[in-house]
Amino acid sequence: TQLLEQSPQFLSIQEGENLTVYCNSSSVFSSLQWYRQEPGEGPVLLVTVVTGGEVKKLKRLTFQFGDARKDSSLHITAAQPGDTGLYLCAGGAGGYQKVTFGTGTKLQVIP
Amino acid sequence: DVKVTQSSRYLVKRTGEKVFLECVQDMDHENMFWYRQDPGLGLRLIYFSYDVKMKEKGDIPEGYSVSREKKERFSLILESASTNQTSMYLCAGADSNYGYTFGSGTRLTVV
User: Fold this and answer.
1) Which of A56, B14, B98, B107 can bridge A92 by disulfide, Cβ–Cβ 3.0-4.6 Å?
2) Rounded to the nearest 10 degrees, how much is the dihedral formed by the CA atoms of B80, B85, B86, B90?
3) Would you say A97 and A83 are in contact if contact means Cβ atoms under 8 Å apart?
4) pLDDT reading at B2 higher than 70
5) Is B24 helix (H, G, I), strand (E, B) or coil?
């Protein structure tokens, strides 16, 4: 069974601070996705990375896929209260587009 | 804007009832998924479907069944609802790079 461990589990920071969330596995994935989920809603896809070493930027969010395609990171610059939510990584490797979801990081940005 | 629509946001059902959760997508996705999300347990795959009338068990299929009579509709059925099936249920469709589009979720309470 493929497992994706995220760290930290919880993060509470002040507005304007920077943070990094990590997603690690011993398995190789063909693609890696990051989602953000707000309370009472479904997760929303932020980005998909498919190439080892790939870096993608989405405004203040920077996503990196590890060279060996076993891990990923999400860096947020100058966090804002609107960034509050549950961040989930997910790795794709199986058939039929099945993915393995990470354990999640709950982020709270305090104004 | 592409969408996955879940028919109910909130449901309250009695123990022993047969419960239908409906999901409709307008993205022409072949692959659709049903997950449940519980605190501390993350997203767990119940069933998925890779084509009309085709279905595969996920990690926790016990107590559930599914139906996919048309490409755009994927239904989750709780044959005889129990209190341990109280949860947030999420439906998703997948694109070619494993990126999922989720519905808004159905919060089911079984009393």
Assistant:
1) B98
2) -110
3) no
4) no
5) strand
Count of CB contacts below 8 A, A vs B?
Answer: 57
The model's pLDDT over A93-111, given as tens digits with 9 standing for 90+, comes to: 877 788 889 989 999 999 9
Q: Cα(B106)–Cα(B88) distance, rounded to whole angstroms? A: 6
The Cα A18–Cα A59 span in angstroms is 14
Write out pLDDT tens, residues A11-32.
999 999 999 999 999 999 999 9
Q: The tokens 């393995």 sit on which residue?
A: A100
How near does any CA of chain B get to the CA of A2, in Å? 12
Using CA atoms, how far apart are residues B28 and B72, in angstroms rounded to an integer?
A: 7
User: In this complex, which of B94, B98, B105 lies closest to A42 when CB atoms are compared?
Assistant: B105
Percentage of residues of chain A with pLDDT beyond 70: 98
- Inter-chain CB proximity A97 and B96 less than 8 Å: yes
Q: Is A82 helix (H, G, I), strand (E, B) or coil?
A: helix
Identify whether the C-beta of residue A65 lies closer than 8 Å to the C-beta of residue A49.
Answer: yes
Q: What's the confidence (pLDDT) of residue B1? A: 59
Buried residues in A5-23 as b, exposed as e (16+ CB within 10 A): ebeeeebebeeeeebebbb
